[in-house]
Structures are given as C-alpha cells and as structure tokens.
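Our consortium's second objective concerns turning raw sequence data into structural hypotheses that experimental partners can test. To show how far this objective has progressed, the report includes one record in full. It was chosen at random from the queue rather than selected for favorable results. The single chain below, 627 residues long, was entered without modification.
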Amino acid sequence: MKLTDFITVSDVETHILGKSMAGRIFPARDDREAWANLPTDLQQAWLTQAESYLGYEWPSLRATAFMAYFEEGSRKPYDSVETERRNALCTLLIAECIEAKGRFLREITNVIWLLCEQTTWCAPAHHYLSLQPGELLSDAKEPLFDLSAGETAALLAWTSHLLKTPLDALSPLIRARIQVELERRIIAPYTDRSDFWWMGFGEREVNNWNPWCNANMLTVLLLMDMEPERKSMVFDKVLRSLDRYLEVQFEDGGCDEGSTYWARAAGMLLVNLELLYRASSGALQVYDQPVIRKLGQFVYNMNIDGHYYVNFADGSAIASQDYSMIHLYGSRIQDDQLRALGQIGFRAYQVTDRRGKGISFFQEMISLLSYASIHKEAALAPPLVQDVWLPNLQVMAARESEGSSQGLFVAIKGGHNDESHNHNDIGHFVVYVHGKPFLIDIGVETYTQKTFSPQRYEIWTMQSGYHSVPVINGFEQKEGRSFHAEEVTYVNSEDAVHFGLELASAYPVEAGVQSWHRSLTLQRGQFPSIELRESCLLFEPTDQVLLHMMSNQLPQLLDQGSIRLQDSDQNQLLLQYDNKQWEAAFEHITVTDESLTRVWGESLYRIQFKLRHAVQQGNWVFRMTEQ
C-alpha cells in the first residue's frame, strides 16, 4: 500500500492548507466548555501535578551528562533530565488549558526557554551517525532530527498553538523564539536533507522511527506558520516518506520489532493518520485499507492475558501499551476486538497516574479526552484470540479456547536473525498457563550504548543461548539475514494447531548441522498438551547438544524425566522428557537490571537438557501439560 495513492498533496491543499487548525485537532484553550466537561477528578489530578512545577528548580543539562553516554554507555544522566523537561511542559500546558487563568504561564515560559537554549534536541545515543571518532559533544552547526528532537518540536508547536494569546500577551518574543528554533532544528533539516536514514530515501530499511519522526514533523507542519508553497513541498515529502514505511510492512500486519513496539510503530502511524483525518475534518482517511487494519490488529493478536504479551525481539512480557490509542484505532477501523483491548486495558492500567510519564502530548490528549467515554461504555469481552498465524512474520500463537486465558497458551517464531530489534531466536517459543508465564522470553535489559552497537550480541539477552533453542557442538545461532528459518509450516484444526520449521540455516557451518527440524503442537480437547518434537541429522556424531528453556519459576527436577514448574498461585506446568537420552539441570540467574526486575523480579532460571550419548541422527519429544 502507498499512502500517496489515497492522499495527495492536492488533497492536502484542498482540505487542510489555508484553513485554521484552531479546535480542529484538539479543543482550543478558549473552548471552555470542552475543557470544563472533563471529569473533575481528572482535572484536579493534572492541576495538582502542574502545581508541583510552580517555583520548580529546573535541572540543568550538563555537558558531562551528554559525554557520559560515550564514556560510560549510560543514557540516563542526559535523557532523564531532557525527558523531565518535556514531561513538565506537557503537564503545565494541559493544566493551563484546563484552568485558563495564566497561573502556569511563567513556568511554561521557563521550560520553553530551557528547551530553546539546549545545544541539541537530539539524544546522545542518536548522535552516533554524525560524530567524528573520539568526539563527545554535539555540533550546534548540525541540528539532527531524531526521536527526541521530534518530540520536543511537536510539544513546542502545540504550546505555541494552544497558548498563542496568553503567551503573546506576556511577550511576543516567546512564540517567535519557538518559531526560530523549529525552523533551525526541524523544518530546515527536514526540508533540505534526505539522508536521515529513517526517512526511507536511502538503502537502509526503516522501522518505527519513520512514522514517529514523521508524526512530529506533521504536527509542526500543521500548527506553525510557513509559506504555502513550502508547506505543500514538505507535505509531499512527509507523505512520500510514510510510503517507505508502508512499503516494508507485512500484509499480515506483523511487526518484527515486537508487540512492545506497537505503540511506537503502528501506534505512531495512527498519529499521522489521525492528524490528517482531524486536520481535514475527516476528509482524508485510509482506515478502510486492509494493511492499516492488520497493523492495528497485531497488538491484540499478541495479547496473552491482561498486560502480558508475546514479547519476541526487544520487548517486555509486561507491555506498557497506550490503551487509549488502541481504543481509538479500534474505533477508526471498526474492530470491536481492538476496541475491547483498548477499553479493558485503559480501565485497568491507564489511569490518572500516567500523566506526564513521557507519552507524547498527542497521546496524552487522546487519553484525557476519551477518559470519560471509555469508562461509560458497556463492558466488552477480552479479545483472547484462539489461533493466530502471521505467515509473513512467521509467528504462531494458540490457546486452548477462544476468549479465555484458562489452560495452555503457546507462541513460537521463525523468521531471520536480522529483524529490527533482533534477538538470535529462530524457533524460540513461550508457554503460559492460565495467562501466567512459565517458559518465557526474557526480554531486553535497559538500553545502553552497547545495545545498538557492533557489540549487541555480547549482551546475554540477545543470544540464542538464553532462548529456548538448541546449542549444537558449542555453537549458538548467529546474527544476520542469512541465518533464517526454512520449510516453515502451519496446520490448524479445531483439535490441534501445529507449527514446524527447519533450523539448520540459523547456525554457522561449524555447528555441523545437516538438518534440525523443530515442530510444536498444541493439542486441545479432554487432555490438552504441548508437544515439542526435535529431529536432527548432524554431519558427525556428537553428544555436544544442549536444549535450553528459560523460566521465571523455580524448576523442580522430579524422577523419571519430569520437571515441575509452579507459580505463586499454585498453577503448574509439568515438562516430561526422555531421561535416558537427556540429562536435565538448571541454572539460577540473578537479575539486577531494572527493566527485567520490573517484570520478573530478581531470579530467572535456565533449564538445560544435555544429550547423554553421542548421536548423528536423533528424534526426541518433550511434552508439557498443566497439572
């Protein structure tokens, strides 16, 4: 699909250019009825948060904090301060619109000034493509348009747009300064350059950066003053850049960045589509197009239960989804299952304590304005899909019964080892019981300089040895597109679902693998089970074969080839294997990273099956049942 096949610059000129944006996208500050109709408790929550910034001692952004990323690999010293500034401005802006008394204008001006005085709006972690070797600071002569710069730009554009009258009354130079900085840091670089990789005009394949950065550019474009001809030219570039993103999306809607990135991938595409839709008073829309529908549906296809999601790639098993955006997406494409996920998640997890937590102003406003209506809706059933098959992404997920988290759930992936936010994990699977994790995907640690460097696969969570796949003759899977699944099959019936794939091409030739076929079957019915079957043919006999499975539950090694996993709610998974062929053990992993402890606590376990006897050809079955 190409967006430009449905929305052209001519359409934009007809329906958007030359028209006032006041009140089109969100209510104007002077629309007192709209702001007064927000729930009283919600209004008070925002005002209370904003009051904490009155007389605030604004933290400084030190050069040494920027340098810390390159010297120590830590993003926190700089990013935390910059994020706090944006959070504060977002909170103050919404509070001023709610109250409209000018009480927050001076602190708003303070943080506007701080942002405009920053040497760069680009995060240190995203300077790696521009800095000379050994350089530790940003070059003010080369403004870079990254995710952070875009978020800052869009927030300043909204501030200038919504507070035009009171800011100009305080001083016309405030909004003039915003205009200068947006021109210098965002508009001119976007207009004059086509070599930002995320634009999609080069050889590198785009990912979530494309809709995310373009959504921020589109915001600036809609809200700020610009010559009509230049505006048309930039609109054309935004639409063509978004085409590059849509061109690489799978027809099945699958996102190889993982379900945790839905809000930043399909969710940011939605921001672009919704900006065009609202700015044109509904005239410009593509919500009826099949791929747009599929991209939205991916998030509920990956939902296991509650806030647990299938988390292949750089994902967390507990995903912080933006449920108001999910609900909006479901409403736009008229999908009740997507709308239900948004409704249920919004009521359970997206409450007022999320205000100012780093979500963009657009998303905060969607949450704010839909709060009352979502809570008033009749309750919808959770969209717990029984069978999911994404043939382009090569991901399967299945549960015992449609609409229920009770019983067994399994998901498994094929694909290749050069996916966006890739882990070396071809053939990796997860198993949940009653919606709770038992065999898991660990996820990813807090991002550091190493995460997106040539040393990425030195990080343990990225390695296949910490996923549920074999280690053969001491060799794990390798990274790169040439390391991929083959002969992927999927068969589904009412009684069972079956997934199979050939793993040999995921390993280097030194592993000595002619064939390693893995199949996984979920059997439904009176005696539900999951069967994992491994069939291998090696070039030489060896006993150097290990099978790993990761768990957040302490394994109990029982007699006669059984391992019991039990959670705090007494749910159990029994794993049975041939103990004449395999010796079982497990390793305790102490978890210290904050991103992982938030999900798993301080302990994880790597179950290890070691082959007892040398084989050249083998066929083994591992069986899992709920106890």
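The partners drew two points from this record. Confidence is low (pLDDT under 50) at residues 352-356. The chain is about 35% helix and 20% strand. Both points have been shared with the crystallography group to help prioritize constructs.
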